[in-house]
Amino acid sequence: MKRERGALSRAFSVLRLTPFVYLLLIQTEPLQGVNITSQVRLIHGTVGKSALLSVQYSSTSSDKPVVKWQLKRDKPVTVVQSIGTEVIGTLRPDYRDRIRLFENGSLLLSDLQLTDEGTYEVEISITDDTFTGEKTINLTVDVPISRPQVLVASTTVLELSEAFTLNCSHENGTKPSYTWLKDGKPLLNDSRMLLSPNQKVLTITRVLMEAREAREPGEGRSLQGRTGRTGLA
């Protein structure tokens, strides 16, 4: 009798464990989703040129992906939606003839405008996958910086105890940064060399004989003003 009761007890224990085993098997089964990767997070673009927002996605599904690129604003702007590389719907007028999609999900923006600058988000989903992949890329757009000029505040002969000011300026270009060089080396503030907060203006106090050559940038031991990534005066 005791043996029968023991056998029945073990049988009921197995029955109680069975749903738990099924649940465990369901929970440990890997969930499928789209994985998006990118080698870049920030792209520097130039007005009128092209920029490639490069991504790569992976999925266990062989179906075509649904791709959606957005420019993040207070109200996100949809740049393009597609199935594979086939565009869905009508493009906004400001993107017509300016975009190209690639099979890996990448987006090529042509004829860049200043308004294209911002954070772009791509979403890629596939019917068979549980999760949608997402990735963001930041794009900056600048106007090329024109060759800068160094203007001298005074052209009169200076006494050795006097000071004079050099002003670096340029006509075109966005987000300029300024660096003053002497003999190819960047200048820093010291007791005689005073730079403005944005380093656009350099004031030299207590002029010495060697500083006279600063009036003719580019020759001999001279001072030079540099602005942006490309400009040099």
Task: Specify the oligomeric state.
Answer: single chain
CATH topology name of the largest domain: Immunoglobulin-like
- Structural category is mainly beta
How are the strands of the biggest sheet laid out side by side?
Answer: 2-11-10-5-6-7
Low-confidence spans: 17-29, 212-224, 229-233
Under the CATH scheme, which class of the largest domain?
Answer: Mainly Beta
Distance between the termini: 105 Å
InterPro entries: HEPACAM_domain, Ig-like_dom, Ig-like_dom_sf, Ig-like_fold, Ig_sub, Ig_V-set
Organism: Molossus molossus
Region (Disordered): 213-233
Signal peptide: 1-33
Describe this structure in words.
Helix content is 12%, strand content 36%. The chain is mainly beta and 233 residues long. It has two domains: 108 residues, Immunoglobulin-like; 84 residues, Sandwich (Immunoglobulin-like). The strands form five sheets. A six-stranded mixed sheet has the order 2-11-10-5-6-7, with no helix packed on it. Strands 12-13-17-16 form a four-stranded antiparallel sheet, with no helix packed on it. The protein is elongated, with a radius of gyration of 32 Å. InterPro entries: HEPACAM_domain, Ig-like_dom, Ig-like_dom_sf, Ig-like_fold, Ig_sub, Ig_V-set. This is Hepatic and glial cell adhesion molecule. One of its GO terms (cellular component) is endomembrane system. It comes from Molossus molossus (Pallas' mastiff bat).
